[in-house]
C-alpha cells in the first residue's frame, strides 16, 4: 500500500498535510528516481494551477530539485496537458504539475510526468516513496558547482497555444464559424491563462466565464464540477455550446444549446463515431473505465465499435491504449485522451475537437450527441469496517443479492461494487432504466453490505 501517492499523484491540504518539507523530499527523491539512468544533468519542468498555495509548493519543489543537482524550468500557471506537451517538446527529463485538479482551493497536489509526457507508473511512485523514507536523501545532495539552477520560462505558454493552432487552424479556416458562439468556463483555474488566447487565435466567437482567479476561487461553484451556472448562461445567451474545464485543465465537460450536460461518455461516443467515419479510430476501439455508463457500451455494440474496459483512473486507460495500440480513451468525468495529439487528457483539445465536429457536421450540439442514450446511474455509499471493505466478494448473501439484481435487469442494467481506496466505504453503483427503482435497490444493497461488513 502506497503511503503518499494516490490514484492521481499526492493530494492533501496544503501547508499542513502537504507541508513544504514533504514536498522537498518528494522532489529530491523524484529527481533521483526519474533521472538516475541519465548521463547528463537532468532538466525538470514545473507548472501549477492558480491556488494560493501554488507558489509555496513550487518553491519547496524547486529547492528539492536544485538540491539534487537538477536544473529547473518554472513554467508558472499552465494546464497539466500543457506541461505534459512541453516535457516532450523540450526533451526534458521529467516534469511536475502542482495542482489538486477539481478539489477546492485549500487542497494542493503533486503529479509527476515522465520524459514522454505521461504520468509515471505506480512502480516509480512506489520507488520514490521508498527513497523518501529510506534515510538516503542526504546522500543525493549536490555540492559546489553541481547544485542545480532554475529559470522562469512563462513564455513557453505561447508554445502550448501554437500546439492548438498547428493542429486546428486550417480546419477552422475551412469551416463557417460566423454563427457559432461558445461559452467557456475556466473554473478560475489553469486554463484561465490560455483558453481565451486559443479560441481568439482560431477565430471562434466566445464568452468567457469564471476567468478571474484570485487564489481561493478555483472550482468554486464553477468549472466541470459545477455546471449549473454554465447551463443557465448558455440558454439565456443563446450559445451553441458551453465548455467547462476543471482546475488543472485536463478535463472538459460540455453543455448543449438546450443546457443539457455532455459528459465524458457522450464525448467518447461522439469522438469515436467521428474518428471511425474518417478511418482514424485505431482498431475501431474506444477505451473507458468500469464507471462508464452502460449507454456507452450499448452505443459501441450498435455501431460496431470495440469497447475495452479498465479500472478507474486515466493512467489505466492510457496504459491499455499504449499496450494495445488504441488512440481514443477516457473517463466519464471528461478526462479524454487522444493519443494522436497528446499523451494525457487535455480539456482545451477536447473542446476544440467537439467544436470542430459540430461545425463540420453542420448540426446542433444536441443532435450530434443524439447517438448515445445515457442510462440513469445511482451511487450509494455503504459505511463498513475498514478492514472488511474488500470482503463483499466472499460473502454469499451479498453475492446472491448482486446476482439476483443483475438477472432482474436482463441486460438493461448493471451493478458495480467498489471499495473506496481511502475511506471505510463500499460504493454501490447501479444503472438501469428507472431511477426510482434504482434508488430503492441501491439503498437495499448498501444496507445489506453495511449489515454484513461491520
Summarize, please.
The chain is α/β, with parallel strands linked by helices and 454 residues long. It has helices at 20-35, 54-68, 80-89, 122-132, 157-174, 195-201, 228-236, 264-277, 294-302, 314-324, 347-361, 365-368, 396-409, 435-452, and strands at 10-13, 43-48, 71-77, 94-98, 107-113, 150-152, 181-185, 205-209, 241-245, 252-255, 261-262, 285-289, 306-310, 328-330, 336-338, 377-383, 414-419, 425-431. Helix 1 crosses helix 4 (122-132), helix 8 packs parallel to helix 9 (294-302) and helix 8 packs across helix 11.
Pick out its properties:
Alpha-D-Glucose-1,6-Bisphosphate, Chain A, domain 3; alpha/beta; 3 domains; 14 helices; TATA-Binding Protein; six-stranded mixed β-sheet; globular; 454 residues
Q: What report would you give on this structure?
A:
- The structure is a single chain.
- By secondary structure, the protein is α/β, with parallel strands linked by helices.
- Helix content is about 40%, strand content about 20%.
- It contains 14 helices and 18 strands.
- Helix 1 (about 20-35) crosses helix 4 (about 120-130).
- The longest helix is centred in the middle third of the chain and has 18 residues, at about 155-175.
- The protein is globular, with a radius of gyration of 23 Å.
- The two termini are about 20 Å apart.
- About 50% of the residues are buried.
Amino acid at each position: 500500500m502506497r503511503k503518499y501517492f494516490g490514484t492521481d499523484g499526492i493530494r492533501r491540504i496544503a501547508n499542513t498535510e502537504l507541508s513544504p518539507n514533504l514536498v522537498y523530499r518528494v522532489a529530491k527523491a523524484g529527481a533521483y528516481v526519474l533521472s538516475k539512468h541519465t548521463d547528463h544533468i537532468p532538466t525538470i519542468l514545473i507548472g501549477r494551477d492558480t491556488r494560493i498555495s501554488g507558489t509555496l509548493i513550487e518553491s519547496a519543489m524547486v529547492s528539492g530539485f536544485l538540491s539534487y543537482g537538477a536544473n529547473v524550468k518554472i513554467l508558472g500557471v499552465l494546464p497539466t496537458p500543457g506541461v505534459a506537451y512541453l516535457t516532450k517538446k523540450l526533451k526534458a527529463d521529467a516534469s511536475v504539475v502542482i495542482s489538486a485538479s477539481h478539489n477546492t482551493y485549500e487542497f494542493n497536489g503533486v503529479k509527476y510526468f515522465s520524459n514522454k509526457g505521461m504520468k509515471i507508473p505506480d512502480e516509480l511512485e512506489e520507488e520514490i516513496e521508498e527513497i523518501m523514507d529510506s534515510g538516503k536523501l542526504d546522500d543525493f545532495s549536490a555540492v559546489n558547482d553541481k547544485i542545480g539552477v532554475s529559470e522562469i520560462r512563462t513564455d513557453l505558454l505561447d508554445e502550448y497555444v501554437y500546439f492548438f493552432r498547428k493542429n486546428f487552424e486550417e480546419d477552422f479556416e475551412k469551416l463557417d464559424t460566423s454563427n457559432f458562439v461558445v461559452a467557456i468556463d475556466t473554473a478560475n483555474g489553469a486554463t484561465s491563462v490560455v483558453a481565451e488566447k486559443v479560441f481568439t487565435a482560431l477565430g471562434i466567437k466566445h464568452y468567457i466565464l469564471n476567468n478571474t482567479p484570485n487564489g481561493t476561487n478555483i472550482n468554486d461553484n464553477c468549472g466541470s464540477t459545477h455546471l449549473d451556472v454554465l447551463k443557465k448562461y448558455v440558454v439565456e445567451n443563446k450559445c451553441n455550446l458551453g465548455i467547462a474545464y476543471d482546475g488543472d485543465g485536463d478535463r472538459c465537460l460540455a453543455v448543449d444549446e438546450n443546457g443539457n450536460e455532455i459528459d465524458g461518455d457522450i464525448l467518447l461516443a461522439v469522438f469515436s463515431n467521428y474518428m471511425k467515419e474518417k478511418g482514424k479510430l485505431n482498431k475501431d476501439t474506444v477505451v473507458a473505465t468500469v464507471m462508464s455508463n452502460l449507454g456507452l457500451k450499448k452505443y459501441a455494440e450498435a455501431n460496431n465499435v470495440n469497447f475495452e474496459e479498465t479500472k478507474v483512473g486515466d493512467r489505466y486507460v492510457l496504459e491499455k491504449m499504449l499496450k494495445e495500440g488504441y488512440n481514443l480513451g477516457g473517463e466519464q468525468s471528461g478526462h479524454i485522451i487522444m493519443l494522436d495529439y497528446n499523451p494525457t487528457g487535455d480539456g482545451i483539445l477536447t473542446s476544440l475537437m467537439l467544436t470542430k465536429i459540430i461545425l463540420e457536421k453542420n448540426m446542433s450540439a444536441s443532435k450530434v450527441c443524439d447517438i448515445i442514450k445515457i442510462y440513469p446511474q445511482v451511487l450509494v455509499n455503504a459505511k463498513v469496517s475498514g478492514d472488511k471493505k474488500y470482503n463483499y466478494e466472499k460473502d454469499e448473501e451479498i453475492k446472491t443479492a448482486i446476482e439476483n439484481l443483475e438477472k432482474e435487469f436482463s441486460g438493461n442494467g448493471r451493478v458495480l461494487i467498489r471499495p473506496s481506496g481511502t475511506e471505510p466505504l463500499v460504493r454501490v453503483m447501479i444503472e438501469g432504466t428507472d431511477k426510482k427503482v434504482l434508488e430503492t435497490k441501491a439503498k437495499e444493497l448498501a444496507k445489506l453490505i453495511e449489515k454484513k461488513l461491520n
